[in-house]
Design goal:
The protein is mostly beta strands. About 5% of the residues lie in helices and about 55% in strands. The protein contains five helices and 45 strands. The two termini are about 25 Å apart.
């Protein structure tokens, strides 16, 4: 694992998005005197074909060897355990549904969070068009050649790069030449099997991987199944020409039953769930074609084309918001405004319902099955020219690019009335649907999202030890929404929204000593509101994510300015660095909780927010020992006063948030350490993670107690028996520490007061996993 504030490793090989185009970077200034040729990091080009790719800010990389040594089963676990300034809110307690936080910016599969990072896989932007979310289950960790995390709001990574960009570089037949079978098993019914193969003929290369993951889950009623496939075909010609055809598919069934009232864990254990199921099924495939064409000795053309197709189905068993009432002498259900429910079937056809004749009682319908289906088809094309200019002692490189992308989104959701099984202690608290649906909760939304952009980026050697990089990018986004729901309210979601922004960046690197360099940068990027945010932005009619949207007031786009100042030192096997960062969001969008569930509310612009802090790292090799440590301090605060709705706050709703109040869900301090010992073919390692406390979501005014911090210790070991066989094992949470990674306020009494009289705990938490064990064998053939 390499932590670097200015990259000194020429093995750093980002392959970025076909949607975004190019990024200004620089070679180490210590090398400028020897080779007067600066480099701009090109987004579409293949990194292994270019040396000296540099970025004006902090960046971290994990290569194939780092990934293999970590013994992690998925990408989220690798980022949590190894990358500086990365923390996790494990809301769902599913290994493929964690919320990743980097410098206070979020990257998550869950709707309702302010997404602030971009993700790319071999030139394909992997943020989902509907909500800029990312599905961790789509790409097998085994298939990655390198994982890179770039800091800041550099505009050339495209929209939504407010806090950084995660770049995933896939293996090919030139970087991986082997046939491997990897099988592991462990606690809570976990097993995973992976087969991968790669090779080349010198000109043609292939890589393919198939992976299957299953587990019962350590929480009750929480099984997971994930199947992944990926293949990458490569042709290399002379003079640096290259084409790659990448295809991947995945299918998953994820059950993550979410947060639980804090006091319920004392009554039923930490594996208890509040209500269930909370199920997400993903079916996804994509293909991309990328080409690098050398037009002249100093001119190259990079092309990229992709298509993605995904379908996500969700089922959430929840408590009901409807109450028993009497209308015309008959018992029925009414909403919070005392309006009687209009019952329909799942197609929206009106039903003449008599609950007595159906053998149902209104007070028994105390649960809901919220279901949704999201179909997303998206594609894009882009091109960029890379031009090298020799001007005496001051050479430069320039990149010119443009591109377009589109997405067609079909979203539908329904709310089915159900019976909640919560009669006594030991009841499963699951829901059983009765076939009746709420007419007002039907959502049928068709959305089209179109983006166009262009940019210019350049790198110039001002003198032997001073490098300038600069870039500017223009983005235009159109989001069209068509409400297809039946009934009189079938046009409330209609809308046509345009967003545009010109974002610049500039950076300087100064090699003021032989082994030490200083870099400074300023960059700006923007994020247009997503269709899910635009469709759920009315405080008078909150929605239940991800299952309902109710009107279309406009939202402003978010614009982020990031300043960074970093110093990096490398002497032999010692690497150390320090980075100061300051990121200001204007017109930031957050999700305001407005109901009994943490997922019920609306999106709102709340003014400015600030994320500033310091991060530092040190890495050292002593013969058979390797030590790495890192520390991050994050000051994440609201900079504009506003009223937080917070209906379940213990102090009451409508709390006044003042400038300087901390943003909930973000730890102020985090630290990581790793110690490895090598003895022949044996590797022993231990990892430590510390994370300080955080405020509950819903306590934006910082008036209540915080969630406690925690420290975790993991162990891992691997041994290569011979050339063909290796075995490995790891233990997570060695000391079986009880801890929580997430907190929010909710309403628990209506579900639990019948079995636990007087129960009224508003604190919902995401409990951390207990001690878990995994072991496996890897066979090459």
């Amino acid at each position: 694992m390499k932590y670097q504030s200015t990259n000194r490793a020429k093995s750093s090989k980002p392959v970025l998005s076909l949607l975004t185009l190019a990024i200004a970077g620089y070679i180490p200034v210590s090398a400028i005197a020897d080779d007067q040729k600066p480099e701009v990091i090109t987004i579409l080009g293949h990194a292994d074909e270019r040396d000296g790719q540099w970025y004006p800010g902090a960046h971290q990389h994990a290569n194939m060897a780092d990934i293999e040594r970590s013994l992690d089963a998925n990408l989220g676990q690798l980022l949590k355990s190894s990358f500086v300034s990365v923390s996790v809110n494990d809301v769902q307690n599913n290994p493929f549904q964690m919320d990743l936080q980097y410098r206070g910016f979020t990257l998550s599969p869950l709707l309702g969070l302010p997404q602030g990072m971009s993700v790319y896989v071999n030139g394909v932007r992997f943020n989902e068009p509907f909500g800029d979310t990312v599905n961790w289950d789509l790409i097998p960790l085994t298939a990655l050649r390198e994982v890179s995390l770039y800091s800041g709001s550099n505009p050339v990574f495209g929209q939504n790069t407010l806090g950084g960009a995660l770049v995933l570089d896939v293996k090919d037949g030139f970087s991986f030449q082997d046939n491997v079978l990897d099988v592991r098993g462990g606690s809570h019914g976990m097993w995973q099997g992976t087969v991968e193969s790669g090779g080349n003929s010198g000109e043609l290369g292939y890589y393919a991987v198939v992976s299957r993951y299953e587990e019962d889950g350590w929480r009750d009623f929480s099984p997971t199944e994930v199947t992944q496939f990926l293949t990458n075909l490569t042709w290399k010609g002379g003079e640096g020409n290259r084409w790659d055809l990448l295809a991947a598919a995945s299918r998953s069934d994820l059950i993550g039953n979410g947060a639980v009232p804090f006091d319920l864990m004392a009554l039923e254990g930490r594996s208890a769930v509040y209500t269930h199921p909370d199920q997400t099924e993903n079916d996804h495939w994509f293909a991309s074609l990328a080409g690098d064409i050398q037009l002249a000795s100093n001119l190259s053309l990079d092309l990229n084309l992709y298509y993605r197709d995904s379908e996500t189905n969700t089922l959430n068993g929840d408590d009901s918001d409807f109450e028993e009432c009497e209308v015309d002498g008959e018992e029925t259900l009414c909403d919070e405004d005392d309006e009687p429910v209009e019952f329909v079937d799942r197609h929206g056809k009106a039903l003449d319902v008599d609950l007595d004749e159906m053998g149902l009682e209104a007070d028994d319908l105390d649960g809901l099955n919220n279901t949704s289906q999201t179909k997303q088809k998206s594609g894009g094309v882009s091109a960029q020219l890379v031009l090298d200019l020799e001007r005496g002692s001051f050479p430069s490189q320039w990149v010119f690019g443009a591109g377009a992308s589109w997405a067609d989104i079909d979203f539908r959701s329904d709310t089915e009335f159900a019976e909640l099984m919560n009669e006594e202690v030991g009841s499963p608290r699951s829901t059983s649907g009765v076939g009746l649906y709420d007419e007002d909760s039907i959502v049928r939304l068709d959305s089209n999202r179109t983006q166009y952009y262009g940019f210019i980026a350049g790198s110039l050697a001002l003198r032997d030890n001073l490098q300038l990089t600069t870039a500017a990018r223009y983005d235009f986004t159109n989001i069209e929404m068509i409400d297809l729901a039946p009934g009189e309210d079938g046009t409330t979601l209609d809308g046509d929204h345009d967003f545009n922004h010109l974002s610049p960046s500039v950076g300087l690197t100064w090699q003021f000593m032989d082994q030490t360099s200083l870099n400074a940068s300023w960059a700006q990027s923007s994020r247009a509101p997503t269709p899910v945010e635009l469709s759920c932005a009315d405080p008078d009619a909150p929605c239940k994510l991800p299952n309902g949207f109710v009107s279309d007031p406009p939202l402003e786009q978010v614009v982020t300015d990031t300043w960074e100042l970093g110093v990096d030192h490398q002497a032999g096997t010692l690497q150390a660095g320090l980075t100061l960062f300051y990121a200001m969001n204007r017109d930031d969008i957050i999700f305001q909780q407005a109901g009994g569930l943490p997922s019920e509310g609306y999106f709102d612009n709340v003014g400015d927010t600030l994320r500033q802090g310091v991060e530092t790292y040190l890495s050292k090799q002593w013969q058979d020992w390797h030590l790495s440590v890192s520390y991050s301090y994050l000051d994440a605060t609201f900079q504009s006063p506003y009223i937080s709705f917070s209906p379940n706050n213990p102090l009451g709703g409508n709390r006044q948030v003042e400038k300087g109040d901390r943003i909930p869900g973000l730890p102020e301090h985090s630290a990581k350490a790793s110690l490895e010992w090598y003895w022949g073919d044996l590797l022993l390692g231990t990892d430590l993670l510390y994370q300080s406390g955080q405020y509950y979501r819903g306590d934006e005014a910082n008036e209540n107690e915080q969630l406690d911090g925690f420290t975790l210790v993991d162990l891992r070991a691997s041994y290569r028996i011979n050339e063909w066989v290796a075995v490995y094992a790891r233990v997570d949470n060695l000391f079986d520490t009880d801890y929580e990674t997430f907190g929010a306020y909710g309403e628990s009494d209506e579900v639990l007061e019948g079995v636990y009289p007087g129960f009224d705990d508003a604190r919902f938490v995401g409990p951390g996993a207990p001690r878990t064990f995994a072991a496996g064998v890897k066979v090459s053939f």
